[in-house]
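Example (one chain per record):
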Amino acid sequence: MRVLLTFQDLQLNNKMPVYMQIALYVKRRILLKWAVSGDKLPSRRDIAMQLNINPNTVQKAFKLMEDEGYVRTSSTTGSVIYLDDEIYGRIETELTKEMVAAFIAEAKEANLSFKKTVELLTELWE
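Predicted structure:
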């Protein structure tokens, strides 16, 4: 088992609850393949110390990640990332939709037309 994830570079903000930011951070690492199935997560206490937050907040993040199925915890191995095709696909879809929705919101705020936005996307994609 590898231990790769550290949370020291996670920049917390006031836009969403901290426990959700921790879970989103792990999902982003999974999407980028910087975290893979079998990777061991640091202990809840270690993460709380890295982020200078309450351990109960970290516990809440772990519960969310376990409920969504991409983290499994056992008394012998600790908490480990678990992925299968279905779970990875869910994470990929969720994060991709969020990125696209944010982009669309900014394009609309800038009063770009759909046609102009698609033209720019096509031009820059290649």
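Caption: The chain has five helices and two strands.
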